[in-house]
Amino acid sequence: MKVDLTPGYILHHRAYRETSLLLDVFSQDHGRVSLIAKGVRNKKRSQQGQFQLYQPLLLSWLVGYGELHTVNASEVMGPRYLLKENSTLCGLYLNELLVRLLPLNEAEPDIFNAYQLALAGLQAEQDNEIVLRLFEKRLLTQLGYGLILEYEAISGDKITEHQQYYYQPDLGLLPWQQGLSHATISGRSLQHLFNEAGFDQQSLQEIKQLMRSVINHYLGGKPLQSRQLFAQLQTYANKH
C-alpha cells in the first residue's frame, strides 16, 4: 500500500545509520506517522534540507508491516514558517506536545489546522503566550480531554467571575477552599479562556498554570524537554 503526496510537517528527526533519517511526521490525512527517509543524507544527492521543522511538505510513503513506513517521494509545498528567538522554543514545544500526545496513524485534521494556525501566529510575532494557550486548548478538546470552562464539575453551578477555582484531573473545575494546596484560577480568567479573548497578564499567568497542570496529567508526569530547555535559557539570561 502507498500513500501519495499528503500534506505534512516534520515534528522531529534524527540520523539513522550513515545516510538515512528517522522522522516523526504530522500529516493532514493520516495523523502522526513514523517514517524512514533512506539515503537522504548522502552527499551526492542530499535531500536532507527538505526535512526541516516547520516546512510544509507533500510526502509519499510505502506502508510497512509495522509502525515504520518508508518515504519514497517528498516535495516542498510552500515557504517554511520562520520562527525567531523565543518563538523557536515555542515551536519545539508544540512539536513535542504532538509527539507525546497524538496516537500513531489516526487522522486529526482539526489539530492539523490548529497547528498551522499556531505556526502562523508565532511567525507573525503575535503574543506567544496567547498562541500557545489557544493551541493547548484546541489540542485537548480534539483529543477528548477538553475542559468544561462554564460550569463547576460537581454542582453544575455556572462559573462566576470573582470566585477562585482549582482543577481536579478527570473531574473538572471545583471551587477553591481555604487550606487547599492546589493552584487556583479565577472565574474571570476562565471566562477569558472560554471566549478566547480579553487576556491580560494575570489571566494568562493563571491559564498557563491551569493548562500545565492538565497537560502534565495526560503526560503521566513525565517532563517535556522543551520546557526544561526554556527554563535553562531563562536562568542563563537572568544571570547575564
How many strand units? Answer: 8
Shape: elongated
CATH homologous superfamily of the largest domain?
Nucleic acid-binding proteins
Model regions low in confidence, pLDDT < 50 over at least 5 residues: none
**Total helix count?**
6
* Beta-strand fraction estimate: 15-25%
CATH class of the largest domain: Mainly Beta
Helix/strand order: EEEEEHHHEEEHHH
Structure, described:
By secondary structure, this protein is an alpha+beta fold. It folds into 3 domains: 2-76, OB fold (Dihydrolipoamide Acetyltransferase, E2P), CATH 2.40.50; 86-143; 164-207, no CATH class. It is 37% helix and 23% strand. The protein contains 6 helices and 8 strands, in the order E-E-E-E-E-H-H-H-E-E-E-H-H-H. It has helices at 86-101, 109-123, 128-142, 187-195, 201-218, 225-239; strands at 2-16, 20-27, 31-37, 57-62, 68-76, 164-168, 172-175, 185-186. A 5-stranded mixed β-barrel has the order 1-2-3-5-4. A hairpin with a 5-residue loop joins strand 4 (57-62) and strand 5 (68-76). Helix 4 (187-195) crosses helix 5. The longest helix has 18 residues, at 201-218. It is elongated, with a radius of gyration of 20 Å. The model has no long low-confidence stretch (mean pLDDT 91).
